[in-house]
Specification:
The protein is an alpha+beta fold and 175 residues long. It has a domain of 120 residues. The chain is 21% helix and 34% strand. The protein contains five helices and eight strands, in the order βαβββββαββααα. The strands form two sheets. Strands 2, 3, 4, 5, 6 and 7 form a six-stranded mixed sheet that branches. Strand 6, helix 2 and strand 7 form a beta-alpha-beta unit. The chain starts with 7 loop residues before the first strand and ends with a helix.
Length: 175
């Protein structure tokens, strides 16, 4: 195990050597993920094992993180825990990807050395919900601690009818 994760890896070579990568990547280093986050503090923990299954180089392991996303209901921060087990088969072509065993997702390895953070970031992006939101219904008015409901005024509860002016014109006969 390394004290510090390498920036670039040769995944096929790691598979040949049965290598292990265990450590953390700062969330602030994951540029493509930044647009989906409320804050980029924290780190992604990874524990990856590279191996060969027959002739197929594979990477298997766990990715864990707590991402701060923006709730699409109330626009407040919602903590989204990620705890995922991945199984990737390394391929060079779409044809090879189509022939992968069902339990493996394809990892396209077109160059000898690739950025480790790109593998992790791709997996995190796939795990994001399409519309992050709190588990509770955050748009329903909450009750106070003594049990009284928050009441809306009549003005707030019924929006103005944009066609109300037409009703008055019809009554007065103006054109």
């Amino acid at each position: 195990m390394l004290d510090r994760l390498p920036e670039y890896i040769d995944p096929v070579h790691l598979a040949d050597k049965r290598g292990t990568l265990k450590g953390q990547i700062p969330i602030s280093n994951l540029d493509r993920l930044a647009d989906f986050l409320a804050d980029d503090k924290g780190a992604v923990s990874i524990d990856l094992f590279f191996n060969r299954e027959g002739r197929l180089p594979i990477v298997e392991g766990d990715i864990t993180a707590n991402l701060e996303l923006i709730c699409q209901n109330c626009l407040a921060v919602v903590i989204w825990p990620i705890n995922s087990h991945i199984k990737l088969g390394m391929v060079k072509t779409i044809d090879q990807a189509n022939r992968l065993p069902e339990e493996y997702e394809p990892l396209m390895v077109l160059e000898e050395r690739i950025l480790l953070k790109n593998i992790i970031e791709d997996e995190l992006l796939l795990m994001l919900p399409p519309y992050p939101k709190h588990d509770n219904n955050c748009l329903i008015p909450q009750t106070s601690h003594i049990g009284t409901d928050i009441l809306l005024t009549e003005e707030q509860s019924s929006p103005k009818n944009p066609f109300a002016i037409l009703a008055t014109l019809k009554k007065t006969g103006e054109h």
